[in-house]
Design brief:
Length: 489
């Protein structure tokens, strides 16, 4: 027993030395100062409240979107940023017009069903066609009967249906729309996964451009009734809609603090400022973007100046297809600054994190050494670490360039907000002030620690390393469907 106890003690000492060998002695004081500043003076929750009340939604390309851009810029200016700029970009945008969907067992027996258009549906649609059940809307659902959906409307589930075989993957709604189009569908009706008739909006385009078929969402209860009826009878649907699409101008907002020692190395922290237009987008992504704004405020309030340059980025156009972050990365490639970016932290609906996330196992020791200090300050932070990779948020364009990405993890959405994702109930009443403060506290500590670290062991991946990384993470198929797989096999 003594030998076992001695071994455990030595292991604990070695682990502690390994972790804290990654940190600098002054970080404990700095992190405590960050904690005190955020707990006492955070403006994340109040500023988000003001924005939701005075602006409303923040749809890219709309008047509200422009107001949101100016709100964020002026807020950063009020925090004392001098190195502050708009990054304009021009893209094809989309906004909804009218929609009417009816469904029934015969063309002369159609009844209205509550629905909402998905983004980048065509400008004008007026079609009546048969509806066929395509299950989860995955490739395998079509391969079983490749001609089943030709010239018809596909009915698919947004998530993975109960009773699906174990391990069945899910795809983004835009990827399911692309598959339906590939197999000849003339429209897609997506069944939401949230109960109580909640409708989901969001993009149905993998390219950020108009799609050739209408895409609509119906409530879970209505959709599951349709699935049951299709087991014993035919159904038909009439989809009538109008939408707008055209070139619009939007702006990212970027604030920079030059590095004290390594100004040509950069750590980017960002989140998307835009939202959909059904609600104020307080959760998606108010809690993320306004937490990033408050991280910037905290840096300025404490005059934090780490070794590497820190850049705070508020992206527009994420909801329509990562338009702002793609514009940022394109500009960085053009001016050759892309190689300066050592890390990108993305805060998209992050709330009350209990740990950190990273795409790179090589960052484990550094991240957990930073988290160990945070845990000593507040044991509510559990210093968990999630290592992995995903798509469909503003880290993606950076990750595709081989840049390590990360952020906060281990928390949950507040006040049962999950069902209101992309829905008309995404309002400020769902926001939790303490959760936002925790995002800011621990996010600022992570940002400072990585930007000030002696060494960032996670390196830029080469083109071939990036390819293999994406394959290993199971992302190849989704990227191929989206047209973002640049490699020729």
């Amino acid at each position: 027993m003594k030998n076992k106890a001695l071994s455990l003690s030595l292991f604990s000492i070695l682990t502690s030395n390994l972790l804290f060998g990654q940190t600098k002695p002054e970080w404990t004081t700095i992190f405590n100062n960050i904690n005190t500043e955020v707990v006492s003076n955070s403006n994340a929750y109040p500023s988000l409240k003001t924005a939701t009340e005075t602006i409303g939604h923040r749809l890219t390309g709309s008047a509200n979107g422009q107001k949101a851009e100016e709100f964020a810029y002026n807020l950063l200016k009020s925090y004392g940023f001098k190195n502050l700029k708009y990054q304009p970009f021009e893209v094809e945008s989309w906004s909804r017009g009218t929609i009417k969907v009816t469904i029934g067992s015969a063309i002369d027996k159609l009844k209205p069903i509550k629905s909402v258009s998905l983004a980048y549906s065509p400008i004008k649609v007026n079609e009546t066609l048969e509806v066929v059940d395509m299950g989860n809307g995955l490739e395998e659902d079509y391969l079983n009967n490749p001609n089943k959906v030709v010239g018809k409307f596909a009915l698919v589930y947004l998530g993975v249906l109960p009773g699906s075989k174990p391990g069945t993957p899910n795809l983004h709604r835009s990827e399911k729309t692309a598959i339906a189009t590939k197999y000849g569908a003339k429209g897609i009706i997506v069944i939401n996964t949230s109960a109580n008739g909640i409708l989901l909006t969001g993009t149905a385009s993998v390219t950020g451009k108009l799609i050739p078929i209408p895409a609509v969402c119906v409530g879970k209860e209505d959709g599951m009734i349709l699935k049951e009826k299709l087991k014993t009878e035919k159904l038909f649907s009439h989809i009538e809609m109008t939408n707008f699409s055209g070139l619009i101008k939007a702006r990212n907002i970027i604030a920079t603090i030059p590095g004290a020692i390594l100004p040509n190395e950069k750590v980017v922290v960002g989140g998307h400022l835009d939202s959909w237009d059904l609600a104020t987008g307080a959760i998606d992504n108010g809690i993320g973007s306004f937490s990033v704004l408050d991280m910037a405020r905290t840096f300025q309030a404490l005059k934090l100046n780490p070794a590497r340059t820190v850049e705070f980025a508020l992206f527009m156009g994420e909801e329509e297809g990562l338009l702002g972050s793609k514009a940022y990365v394109t500009a960085a490639k053009n001016d050759k600054s892309i190689d300066q970016i050592r890390y990108m932290f993305n805060y998209d609906m992050t709330n009350d994190p209990k740990g950190f996330s990273t795409s790179s196992e090589d960052s484990r020791t550094l991240f957990q050494s930073i988290g160990a200090i945070a845990n000593k300050i507040d044991t509510g932070f559990k210093n968990s670490l999630s290592v992995g990779a995903g798509l469909h948020s503003d880290h993606q364009p950076f990750m595709l360039q081989g840049i390590p990405t990360g952020g906060g993890s281990g928390g949950g959405l507040p006040n049962g907000a999950g069902p209101c994702y992309h829905a008309d109930c995404d309002g400020f009443n769902l926001v939790d002030e303490k959760g936002m403060k925790n995002t800011v506290r621990y996010g600022t500590m992570l940002l400072y620690g990585v930007a000030d670290a002696y060494e960032i062991k996670s390196k830029h991946l080469t083109d071939q390393e990036t390819k293999q990384f994406l394959i290993d993470k199971g992302l190849k198929e989704a990227l191929q469907i989206a047209g973002d797989w640049r490699w020729k096999d």
